[in-house]
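pls ignore typos typing on phone
pyridoxal-5'-phosphate + seq
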Amino acid sequence: MKINFIDLKAQYQAYKEEIDKEVLEVMASAQFIGGEKLNRLEHDLAAYTGAKHAIGCSSGTDALLLSLMALDIGLGDEVITTPFTFIATAEVIALLGAKSVFVDIDEATYNIDPALIESAITDKTKAILPVSLYGQCADMDAINAIAAKHNLPVIEDGCQSFGASYKGKKSCSLSTIGCTSFFPSKPLGAYGDGGAVFTSDDALVEKIKMLLNHGQNERYKHKFIGINGRLDAMQAAVLNVKLTYFDAEVAKREEIGERYTMLLKGSSVITPAVTEDNHSVYAQYSIRTADRKTLSAHLQSKGIPVAVHYPMPLHLQEAFAYLGYQKGGFPLSEKISEEIMSLPMSPYLTQEQQDYIISAIKEVS
Ligand SMILES: Cc1ncc(COP(=O)(O)O)c(C=O)c1O
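k done
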């Protein structure tokens, strides 16, 4: 049986006519940067999340970078975040000369443990940057409460959680700034790189719009040092089509995720723990197993693709050696990085494919 880790080809076939039409319109109009398609997308993204503003940008990484720049985070500042994430979360902090202060995760959700945040705050702390990993929001109320007490902004790295909800509100609308990624394999994926920044703060939105266009406030007048961080019209055109079908895809993802969890009961793998405050968008369906090597080899031998998100926490990465953290520093991040493994997941995964994956797992676990 042929199984894709994420079935982007099936998704294209489903929306082909509309996507082709929208993309061809961009080519015919020659409006490649900005314009009506981007305006529509930004309007609809804001409406979707409930944040007052959405700003399209070049990637999830740049969304995070722009957020930190908008908050004037730079040399010597500290940002509290999790070591159990994709490198981009902490990379942007380092690029600005600031320092990532890592805090370990919750063993059930794999998101930053709010109970550990307060003792990591110093007079250099300038922001808290939780990640909503695998599509489940971090415990944003608890994090926002700590941040409010210390007068700190919160940036949600929602690069894996666009479409998820927490206590009835959508990811990316839950804090000072929310960031997401439209990398093709994300729940809402473009046909290239893309991302968005969300905020309800009018002053921040103006600044972010300037920063992503070389800090320009009028043509060739530069108020800030910025970047080329724009989202192009072709990506906006694809995203506009996909966004109209997104609610149905999110519902399907949740149904498939919950079906995995239900049918894996009785095996020895640990399935994702989605708290009652959350609806996960299952950007990844990640299980834990004490013997990842055996399970992974077995699944691959049966034509089932698997992936590991992420095999090494950031505090042990060579690039972050200068931060001075040691092995043993964040025991849960280290333990889970050794046990975690993601299964094929997309709204196009059939029950037949899913049953095949589940019985293959049960053969060895
Ligand atoms: C948690 C997290 N943060 C940041 C990023 C960066 O997003 P992008 O690849 O769009 O730059 C990703 C996506 O890969 C991610 O998963």
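Residues 59-61, 85-86, 88-89, 131, 157, 159-160, 181, 183, 193, 195 surround pyridoxal-5'-phosphate (CB under 6 Å). The CA atoms of residues 169 and 280 lie 12 Å apart. more later
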